[in-house]
Amino acid sequence: DTKAVRCPVLCLIGKEDKIVSPATARATASGYSGSTFWELDGHGHMLILEPGAEDIARRVAAWIPS
Questions:
Q1: Which of 19, 21, 43, 44 maximizes the CB count within 10 A of its CB?
Q2: Cα–Cα distance measured from residue 17 to residue 63, given in angstroms and rounded to the nearest whole number
Q3: CA 66, CA 61: separation in Å to the nearest integer?
C-alpha cells in the first residue's frame, strides 16, 4: 500500500536500462505521492557498477532530506 509510505521516495533509472524500462520506473514513482524521479543519461541497469557511480551516489546523498 503506497499510502502507508511516509518517507521521501526516490526512483532512479538509467535511460539505457535493458531490464526495467524507464516507463515502468516512472509508473512506480507516480504511485508514491511527492516522489522524485530521475532518468539518468548514459546509464543502464547496474548504476552502482557503472562509470559515474560516485557522482550518482553524491547526488543521491544530497537528495536525502536532513
A1: 43
A2: 22
A3: 10
